[in-house]
Structure formats: C-alpha cells, structure tokens
Design goal:
It contains one helix and 23 strands. By secondary structure, the chain is mainly β.
Length: about 350
C-alpha cells in the first residue's frame, strides 16, 4: 500500500510492542499487563492513544490507568484512525493490480447443492444447486487532514458469475431471512504509516436472501444465472457520500417446473458475494453484489412471469473522530431486473 511520505501522527500515540497472551490481556474495554517490566505504562494519561499491530490490532483511547502489586489495568474505549493519524493517507489494493503495493485476496469459488435452507412456518426453500465465483479486487483509500476524514473510498471490482436453482414448497406463508452459505477466514493486512501500524481485515462470504410469499399449496422450481463485470462501492469527500456503481451483465432465468395450486405466489432470490472491511478489528463497511431473480404468478395465463438481473448495495459504518459525519447509508448501488419469461 502507498502511504503519504510525511504523515503527521498524534504525539499522544503509544505503540505497544506486546502480543496478546501472557504479556497482555485484551478485552473489549480494557488492557491488562503484568506489573513487572511495564512501569512505563503508568506514564499513560487519560486521553492518550494506544495502538497495537498484533493480530487484528486495536486502536484505543485511555480512560484510566490503575496499578496493583502484580498487574496494571488500563481502561479503554475504541479510538478512530483520525485520532492517531492527524494528516496522511493510505491507499490499498487487495487482490488487484492497481496500486504500488498490492496484496493477494483469496478468490471466491463456491458451490453447494441439496440444502434445506429456509423453513419458516409453512414455507420451505431448498437450494438444489448454487454457485458463485468472483476474483475480487478491493480498493480502500483513506485521507485525513487536521484529524478529520477528508477522503474515503471503498470499491469492489471484478468479474462475477453466479447460478442458483431453488425449490420452494409452500402452504400459505412467507419466508425471508438471509443465510450465510460460506465465509472465508479473515485476511489481515498490515501497513506502517510513520510509527503507526494500520491493520485492515477483509472477510468475504456468500449469502442467500430469499423472500417468498404464497397462498395456496404447491411446489415451485426457479432458476437464475448471471455474469457481470462490476465496480461497486462508495466514496466520501467534501460534498458527502456518493455511490460508485458501474456494471454490465448477461442474465437468464426460468421456471423449470411447478406443481401448484397457488392462488398467489411471489418469490425473489438474491445470491450475493459480500466483502466486509474492518480497521483494527472494528466492524466497518461492506459491499454486496450478485444475481437475482423475481417471479410472480400470472393468473390470466396460468403461468409465471419472471425477471432476472444483478443487484448491489453497500452499508455498515465508518467512524472518524467525534466530529459530525453523516453515517454511512445503506445505499442501493444498482438493482437491475430484466423480463426473462
């Protein structure tokens, strides 16, 4: 990753060399150290910033420091990158080739079959087959000026393909939860900005969102597939948040079979690749993208009308300092549905 040549680091920052374990116990609101060999920690004051690059790292503001005969306890609250980095920037490319320092991000290659996934009331949704592949490139750019966020950009780029076959068995009811089908282990990336270690964690997952409403009884088999080239994400500058949304796709779908006495039925399925980003282990923004299908019963022609396409959104949180910043919206980037049958 690229970093500004002369970043300005808050002079109240202390980088801790300790590794979680016997030398340092880490909880959500405190750090504990053996007293022996750590008396310099007693010099920390309320409001100081402590940072660690071990594991997923942490960035904390000191609330209090208490010493006992055999240990030191430091109460903390989460701090933000702009509390430590007063002026500077980072520019990371994960899985792509666009930046001077590029880190490999594992490709998504997922498939499953014959899984009962949603059973809610009288609705059962079964995945007959599902697959999704994406070689993701995630660009993360952050700029800080005067201790305030001046620029932020998170963009997922790549070529995505996905297919899904669902069997919906219903006796008057509805279903609609989101299910995680697969999730990668966290991939952790490190960067040094002056004395400050910056730690980013990226997790990828494949999820299925199914919404089905039925009145009557029957079984419905639906299929959708799509391939797309995408740029999906969000950016922030002086004018506020704005979407990054570009896609070209080919999609198809059908209803291979049904045995229905439904008076009414409607279903939408969305198979997504999701990328979650954390800074110092704290939940941050995400991007989701994947193929979708929507079907409704055509009572006039006694068959089904269906549309297929690609959908993407972005959400989560980005927190920098105590100054007022609009929260990251749950923003739909694109939602294409083209009549297919």
């Amino acid at each position: 990753m690229d970093a500004q040549t002369d970043p300005a680091i808050n002079p109240r920052v202390t980088v801790l060399p300790h590794v979680p374990g016997p030398d340092m116990t880490v909880s959500s609101n405190a750090l504990a150290f053996p007293r022996s060999g750590n008396d310099t920690l007693l010099d920390l004051g309320v409001g100081d910033i402590v940072v660690s690059g071990a594991g997923e790292g942490f960035l904390r503001r000191v609330s209090s420091v208490d010493a006992a005969r055999d240990h030191i306890l430091i109460a903390t609250t989460d701090a933000d990158l702009s509390d430590a980095l007063l002026d500077g920037s980072i520019a990371g490319s994960f899985g792509g080739q666009g930046k001077a320092d590029t880190h490999q991000l594992p490709a998504i290659s997922f498939s499953t079959s014959n899984n009962d996934l949603v059973r809610e009331g009288n609705v059962l949704v079964k995945v007959l087959n599902a697959s999704l592949s994406l070689d993701p490139q995630v660009d993360l750019d952050i700029g800080v000026q005067g201790g305030s966020l001046s620029m932020f950009e998170l963009v997922l780029r790549g070529k995505l393909s996905g297919d899904i076959d669902l069997d919906i068995d219903a006796l008057e009811g509805s279903g609609g939860p989101e299910i995680t089908l697969w999730q990668s282990p966290p991939t952790i990336f490190y960067q040094q900005v002056g004395i400050l270690p910056v730690v980013e964690t990226i997790t990828t997952s494949v999820r299925l969102k199914v919404e089905a409403v039925a009145r009557g009884r029957g079984r419905l088999h639906i299929h959708a597939g799509a391939s797309t080239t995408i740029e999906a994400g969000i950016k922030y500058d002086a004018s506020g948040w704005s979407p990054v949304a570009t896609e070209t796709h080919h999609a198809e779908g059908n209803v291979p079979g049904s045995s229905a006495t439904f008076d009414e039925v409607g279903a939408r399925a969305w198979l997504v690749a999701r990328v979650d980003v954390k800074l110092y282990g704290v939940a941050g923004p995400y991007v989701r993208v994947g193929p979708q299908i929507e079907i409704v019963r055509d009572r006039i022609h006694d068959d089904f009308d269906g549309s297929v396409g690609v959908r993407a959104d972005v959400g989560g949180q980005v927190k920098f300092g105590m100054w007022e910043l609009p929260s990251l919206p749950a923003l739909e980037l694109f939602n294409t549905l083209t009549p297919a049958f």
